[in-house]
Amino acid sequence: MIDVARLAGVSQQTVSRVVNGSTNVAPEIRERVELAIRQLRYRRNPAARALANGQTMNLGIVSFGLTQYGPSVALSGIADEARSAGYATNLVTLGDVDRTAMKAALDHLAEDAVDGIVVLAPVEAALEAITGLEAGVPLVVFEPGAPEGTTSVATDEVGGAALATRHLLDLGHDTVWQVAGPSGWLGSDARMRGWSDTLAASGRVTNPVISGDWSTRSGYAAGCDIARNPDITAVFVANDQMALGVVKALSEYGVRVPEDVSVVGFDDVPEARYYRPALTTVRLDFEEVGRLAVDRILHLMRGGHADALPRVLPELVVRQSTAPPSQTPRTSQQHLR
User: Fold this and answer.
1) Taking the complete model, does pTM exceed 0.85, yes or no?
2) pLDDT tens by residue, 47-60
């Protein structure tokens, strides 16, 4: 840094401000410093920086459910944002989600002296396990479907399910059935609530949910049930993986999508546009969840005032798996395998 300051003709403090992204530097001075950095191929020394500011430059992450799309993409967003801010990440994954396991995870991260912790808590058990535990450092929780909070990052899963259900009703379907995710998952419960509330507000019949477990296999089983019921013309499926199974089962039974049954998924996984037909679904920016979590951790570490974080909002992505209901009802012969 001394060499950079000498070549640019500025103080070391000015070089430090430029390197750390401070806006309190005149444009022409910033340009001189950046030119000197390029010429000298200067790189920051994270260890020296940590020693100077008393931080380890490590963020801890406690996670469960990384086999599911939302938590896994949120984790990627956390790691990318942390890296951009000069932080490494230390991941602890939980097999069992209970208070003992959660406390052990926080204790492990405390021993590693992380500067802050993000907890990915997609299930109710994780929230119950962390309640009242002391982390000793700023902590932010990802809670799918939760209200806005100062130390929680939430996605509007209720609103996303409402978008899916309203889309199908607007196409002219009398009602919408649902293939739900497993109970105890915050996203599953919120998506079910958005679906049922929208049907109730529209005065439509709310039929019993068909239960799944997020997997394509469970979606396939649900699709077999749907194919055998010629009264079903529209289905909201709580994630895209199950929707893939539903579509496959319907196809095998000779039930056309969307001519006979319209299908809407949730998540907008990268493969959704390549389904046959391309899947209408609900998109949530889970990478943004990760970025918001890290931004809030860094804000709290600096002692900043904590306003409520806005929820990440959903977007309906309309493709080829939805259409108005057929004027010709399905026949019993059609749905027999």
Assistant:
1) no
2) 455 545 557 789 99
